[in-house]
Amino acid sequence: MDHQGVATHRILIVDDVQDFRDLTFEVLSRAGFQCVMADNAEQARLMIEEQRPEIILLDWVMPGVSGVELLRYLKAKVTYAHIPIIMVTSRDSEEDRLRVLEWGADDYIVKPFKPPVLIARIKALLSQSQSGSEGTVRIADLVLDLKEETVFVGDPAVCVDIGRIAFRILAFFMMHPDVIHGREAVLRQVWGGDDSVGGRTVDVYVRHLRRALEPWGHHQRIETIRGSGYRFSGKQ
Asked: Which H or E element spans position 16?
């Protein structure tokens, strides 16, 4: 298998269960990634400083400092906030998924998962980080900086952190307003048509977007078209 260009990507696996760490290490190493591991939050902080990973896989429930506490700490630090974090957890309720996204996670995967699912989600985040899109998209006082993957809203403008995948969905909607987008179209655009990602995942991210935009009223722009998908209003 040709892994040319992949091995430069370093992944940090943070989980207190050794069997899980070892299995994930093996899966990702076979896919050509460089992997480092930590079994608690404090060790993870040291590894992040020393190893500078490009993506962090983070367990939710760990003894001492939980994965969620570490997530919020990292996303609050300018030096670490740019690192994509995938929360890997057995917690599968929609409310838990939404909370994780609102706390700053870039994606989430529910245990147990199939190895191709994990690899596909990692590659999706890496491709977004390297996409090199330029310019801005504006609808009323909602502005996206495509190069920096940043959302600004309101007057005066406020920066809103919604995570990379949610950003990509919002960019897709805003660049193609007033059109009904089926869930399959969103999946193709954001996850490359990965069969392991279902329509429910799209729905969770859309709810996350609505919550993030609600203080400025822009949540009303995202309309659910029953049986079809979503439509984003481009009204100025």
From this structure: none
pTM given for the model:
0.74
pLDDT at 193: 60
Maximum Cα interatomic distance, the chain, rounded to a whole number of Å = 53
182 touches 234 (CB < 8 A): no
- In angstroms, rounded to a whole number, what is the distance separating the alpha carbons of residues 21 and 6? 20
Any idea what the CATH number is for the domain that residue 116 is in? 3.40.50.2300
State whether 21 and 85 are in the same domain.
yes
CB 117 within 8 A of CB 125: no
Question: Domain for residue 164, yes or no?
Answer: yes
Q: What is the pLDDT of residue 128?
A: 66
Please identify, among 129, 160, 177, the residue that sits at the C-terminal boundary of a domain.
129
Between CA 139 and CA 144, with CA 140 as vertex, the angle to 5 degrees is 45
| The residue type at 171 | A
